[in-house]
Amino acid sequence: MKLLSAPKAKYLLEGGLDVLHSQSIEWLSEVAFWRDEAAFFHELVAEKTRKPMSSKAKDSFQKIESELVKLKTTELDELEDSVEAHEVYLDKLMQNEYKDQEPYREKHRALTFQFHIIESQIQKMKKEVFKLSKLIHETELVS
After folding, report:
1. 121: helix, strand or coil
2. For residue range 73-99, what is the model confidence (pLDDT) as tens digits?
3. Concatenated DSSP letters for 20-39?
4. Which residue stretches of the chain have pLDDT < 50?
5. Which of 18, 76, 100, 137 is 20 to 30 Å from 58 by CA-CA measure?
6. Using one digit for the tens of pLDDT, what is the confidence trace for 106-120?
């Protein structure tokens, strides 16, 4: 699946290093928010799986739960580590203005793509949680 680059992302990549630094700081903030969100959804899913439900719904919730655990324990950690390393590289790059910036910009482009992928995953997961929660809630009302 190929994601189209957003005009904003393309514009930012052509900006100065201070602009890219600001975006990296935004990313770190976004990762922290996603971590909190993932913890919230993990607790919500865990709470729902304690209630009686169909085996199909339980399987769906368990699948989402394992995706949330993977997101919290692996993907967000790796992304955060990559952005922090990217910031260290930027610091070294800014100390020597004549150094080639292209490798840094390529890494920034790759991180932008990674962020879009994880953001899409999180949105998809939230939709699934809401859909299943609504279905279970409606089933409880009928029972």
Report:
1. helix
2. 899 999 999 999 999 998 888 888 667
3. HHHHHHHHHHHHHHHHHHHH
4. 1-5, 7, 11
5. 76
6. 999 999 999 999 999
Residue 76 is which amino acid? L
Name the amino acid, one letter, at 105. Answer: R
Ordered domains of the chain (ranges, CATH): 18-142 (1.20.120)
**What's the Cα-to-Cα distance from 122 to each of 7, 82, 104, rounded to whole Å?**
22, 19, 27
DSSP string, 65-110: HHHHHHIIIIIHHHHHHHHHHHHHHHHHHHHSTTS--HHHHHHHHH
Question: What is each CA distance from 59 to 4, 82, 87, 92, in whole angstroms?
Answer: 33, 33, 40, 48
